[in-house]
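Lab notebook page, bench 4
Experiment: in silico fold of construct C2
Operator: M.H.
Input chain length: 151 residues
Purpose: comparison with the prior construct
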Amino acid sequence: MTHQLSPPITSLYDRDYYLWLQETIQQLQAGELDRLDISALIEELQGMSNSEKNALESNLRILLMHLLKYRYQPDKRTNSWLFTIREHRKRLLKAFEKSPSLKPYYEMVFAECYQDGRELASDETGLSLAALPSESPFTLEDTLNPDYLPD
């Protein structure tokens, strides 16, 4: 007699994410905390936190790259660069407006994001890394200042 293995039991979170979201919302609204899939809820909240941090870093890298391009290639400045600078500043400022607790994270990753932005600027412009300062010429405040453009 052969035994057939039953398929592994998967949670609703794994089978139908949207339905899991809807049921979780209903359970929370009804105060049915004992019915919540706590491990899936924790996983989702951690993912949301990481997503916010990743978006902040991505916007900051792009902003710093364009600020460097703007400063070190003045003869190639375009409206597209200005748009990108403005857009990514707005994204960062909106993130801080919605989640002020992200501001210390911005300060913590600024130097690392500057190095990434510096590499991206070098790759995109053809300027050597040595031609771009190893430390950010932009302050944390200037980077977010809607009126600031490097000379």
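Observations: The chain has a mean pLDDT of 93. The CA atoms of residues 80 and 86 lie 10 Å apart.
Next step: discuss at group meeting.
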